Amino acid sequence: QKEVEQDPGPLSVPEGAIVSLNCTYSNSAFQYFMWYRQYSRKGPELLMYTYSSGNKEDGRFTAQVDKSSKYISLFIRDSQPSDSATYLCAMKKNTGFQKLVFGTGTRLLVSP
Amino acid sequence: DTAVSQTPKYLVTQMGNDKSIKCEQNLGHDTMYWYKQDSKKFLKIMFSYNNKELIINETVPNRFSPKSPDKAHLNLHINSLELGDSAVYFCASSQDWGSSRGLYGYTFGSGTRLTVV
After folding, report:
1. Suppose A48 and one of A63, A77, A90, B34 were both cysteines; which one would form an S-S bond, judging by CB atoms 3.0 to 4.6 Å apart?
2. How many C-beta atoms surround the C-beta of residue A96 within 10 A?
3. Where are the beta strands (DSSP E) in A15-100?
């Protein structure tokens, strides 16, 4: 079993929809949580990061962390075709030389 | 200016050959990484160097040998290539100390797509 689980999708939604992407993890030592977006044939780029449980908002994106349930989410409001990409959750145990562990990624397709 | 650059972008080679991938970052970061992304998009860490010192060495065949001549460069040499080595290899960097941004995020290169035939 992988440390971080993520539904691979694809998740297809119409333009303007609210998208919910989720990850679960098994190790309660993870403390730092990130979401990366990866366009086809490109490297992952950091979208959002959170430390504590709760919500963090940045424009159309909201990251949510529930440490008690070992569950994190990324919500995208008013989704656009340009949001079509693979979204990877990632997490790290603490600062310093700890590896960043990724989920398998969810492929999102937003149709016009 | 490209922050993390990898060369080559594409590499097609025969089984048994030896090949190298180069990575350079101009962000002034202290730590660099090699990740392997398989056909199902799963990113798995292979190695990490901090200021030229190896700090993470995951379970990787010893045919893979990283080298960091300085903190801005991290190269990956692969001996006796096998079909299963076909993947996209990503280089990344981060600033783990003294930067709140670096505590969370890695900057990735655009990847090297390796195909072994």
Report:
1. A63
2. 12
3. 19-25, 32-38, 45-50, 54-58, 61-66, 71-76, 85-92
A62 neighbors A74 (Cβ within 8 angstroms): yes
Q: Do A99 and B45 touch (CB under 8 A)?
A: yes
Interstrand relation of A106-111 and B64-70 (parallel, antiparallel or unpaired): unpaired
Note every long-range contact of A27-30, with CB atoms under 8 Å and residues 24 or more positions apart, other chains counting.
A27/A3, A27/A93, A28/A67, A28/A70, A29/A93, A29/A94, A30/A70, A30/A91, A30/A92, A30/A93, A30/A101
Instruction: Name the residue facing B43 among A32, A88, A96 (closest C-beta).
Output: A88
Residue of A nearest to B106 (CA): A46
Pair A13, A77: CB distance under 8 Å: no
Q: What is the pLDDT along chain A (112 residues), one digit of tens a residue?
A: 688 999 988 999 999 999 999 999 999 889 889 999 999 999 999 999 888 788 999 999 999 999 999 999 999 999 999 999 999 999 988 766 678 899 999 999 999 9
E strand or H helix that includes residue B113: strand B112-116
Nearest CA in chain B to A105: B41
Contacts of A101 in chain B (CB under 8 A): 45
Q: Band of the pLDDT at B59, cuts 50, 70, 90?
A: confident
- CB contact, 8 Å: A112 with chain B? no
Given a cut of 80, whether residue B104 has pLDDT beyond it is no
pLDDT at A43: 94
